[in-house]
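Supplementary Methods. Inverse-folding protocol.

Structures were first reduced to a discrete structure-token string of length 471. This string, shown here, constituted the complete conditioning input.
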């Protein structure tokens, strides 16, 4: 059954981007319809349940539903009458590294069908991260074909999303900038007017440009962020070899340069998630197709690919063969404050450990259910940090959840061996020194003694039971 009341704006794809957008627009008084082809997701949403963890989203979603401003469904017809239609579906990757545009294309086809029944001008906005040329290319062609209308009779823009998972609501209400990539001037004017209505006095700095430049800007932004991370990770590797060096001090020092900035200079196990990796892959693939070799981005990606293996090798330096060793992983989500495990580094780390026949147990404050769907019963899942650490030979911090940073050396006394690999630089090395072997990414190891002997000596001082056969 289609709704009778027409929406001001419609969101197609109710994932992190689309649902956050739909909820924020309805909170600001817009009539919003949200459409997703995943019926299970729609059923949950219709019962008032947000199907993923995102701070503030559930509360605002409940308010939006109560106000009657947000209506959710799985049929495109409910977006009939909407002045603006936002495409927020994902292009995942094909095996070749090329963006899989099937979701975007099917949304464009369906929107074309909706526009065919419209008598008024409507604006379509591609919010998904799509390869350069997609909006004014295949999206436009499909909408024109299925609506029977030409650009001008409808509007079309690419306005890429820059929100960060874990801060999706704040970022939607207060982004650093808005990019309006327009296929024609009227489309850009219409979107700017809509944003002015949404943001009122607080309209963020707004860039108007050609759609292709908006698409390129989005990819280039993520490629640059990835570059900063891989850059500092390579500096971290140098620091580990320079006696007394610590990448955190180096990053603090270089980050004070306004031209550089401190953000994204956090050394660790590398980046994961659904955006940076995928977008770099798609940009490299786009470069290949147009005859531009993306040397730098390929290097960035290969530095990143190597990070989890380095943590495993650090554990091996102390424990030798990991077969049968209990390894506790703290964190499963690709970053804190989300349950998203898509391309998450902890999962890559776990796969390497499993290939070494390690006995892996992991804990995450919110991402366990999603990780279980991927890993099944290949590892054990602990419901608390205590359970995770208990009896383990090594602990690897894989996600920098704030609650992990609060752990004290005494919390690790449940381990069998005092070996902690701080893959996210959350611990102050001094508080662990002399008792635990704390390997911090990007900090040169203290002392030149043989690692196994040092571990044994620390074990005696740590207060851990002294009976394990290993020692
Ligand atoms: P997501 O996978 O969480 O959600 C996409 C949703 O689209 C899914 O619920 C899926 O069922 C639905 N869908 C697929 N095809 C559809 C169709 N034809 N019609 C209606 N619904 C359909 O994705 P996401 O993380 O929200 O990302 C969406 C886009 O935004 C991607 O292009 C992504 O790269 C980009 N982006 C994501 C983030 C982020 O942090 N997640 C940030 C910026 C940009």
């Amino acid at each position: 059954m289609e709704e009778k009341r027409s929406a001001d704006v419609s969101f197609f794809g109710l994932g992190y981007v689309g649902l956050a957008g739909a909820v924020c627009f309805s909170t600001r008084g817009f009539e919003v319809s949200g459409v997703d082809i995943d019926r299970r997701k729609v059923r949950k949403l219709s019962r008032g349940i947000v199907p993923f963890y995102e701070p503030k989203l559930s509360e605002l979603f409940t308010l939006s539903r109560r106000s009657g401003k947000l209506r959710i469904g799985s049929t495109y017809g409910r977006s009939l009458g909407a002045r603006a239609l936002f495409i927020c579906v994902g292009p995942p990757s094909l095996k070749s590294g090329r963006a899989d545009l099937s979701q975007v294309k099917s949304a464009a086809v369906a929107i074309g069908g909706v526009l065919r029944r419209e008598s008024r001008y409507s604006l379509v906005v591609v919010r998904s991260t799509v390869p350069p040329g997609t909006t004014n290319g295949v999206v436009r062609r499909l909408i024109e074909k299925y609506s029977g209308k030409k650009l001008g009779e409808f509007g079309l823009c690419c306005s890429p999303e820059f929100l960060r998972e874990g801060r999706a609501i704040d970022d939607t209400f207060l982004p650093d900038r808005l990019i309006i990539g327009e296929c024609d001037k009227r489309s850009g004017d219409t979107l700017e007017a809509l944003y002015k209505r949404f943001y009122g006095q607080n309209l963020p700095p707004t860039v108007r440009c050609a759609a292709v430049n908006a698409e390129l800007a989005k990819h280039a932004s993520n490629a640059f962020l990835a570059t900063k991370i891989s850059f500092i990770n390579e500096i971290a590797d140098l620091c580990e070899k320079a006696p007394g060096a610590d990448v955190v001090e180096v990053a603090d020092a270089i980050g004070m340069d306004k031209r550089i900035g401190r953000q994204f200079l956090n050394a660790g196990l590398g980046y994961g998630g659904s955006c940076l990796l995928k977008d770099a892959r798609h940009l490299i693939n786009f470069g290949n197709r147009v005859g531009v070799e993306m040397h730098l981005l390929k290097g960035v990606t290969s530095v990143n690919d190597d990070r989890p293996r380095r943590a495993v090798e650090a554990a091996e330096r102390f424990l030798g063969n990991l077969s049968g060793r209990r390894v506790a992983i703290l964190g499963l989500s690709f970053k804190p404050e989300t349950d998203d495990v898509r391309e998450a580094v902890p999962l890559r780390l776990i796969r390497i450990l499993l290939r070494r026949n390690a006995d892996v147990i992991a804990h995450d404050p919110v991402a366990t259910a999603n990780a279980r769907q991927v890993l099944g019963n290949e590892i054990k899942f602990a419901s608390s940090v205590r359970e995770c650490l208990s009896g383990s030979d090594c602990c690897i911090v894989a996600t920098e959840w704030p609650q992990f940073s609060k752990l004290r050396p005494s919390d690790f006394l449940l381990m069998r061996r005092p070996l902690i690999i701080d893959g996210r630089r959350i611990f102050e090395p001094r508080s662990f020194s002399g008792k635990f072997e704390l390997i911090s990414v990007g900090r040169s190891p203290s002392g030149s003694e043989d690692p196994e002997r040092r571990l044994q000596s620390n074990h005696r001082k740590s207060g851990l039971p002294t009976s394990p056969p290993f020692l």
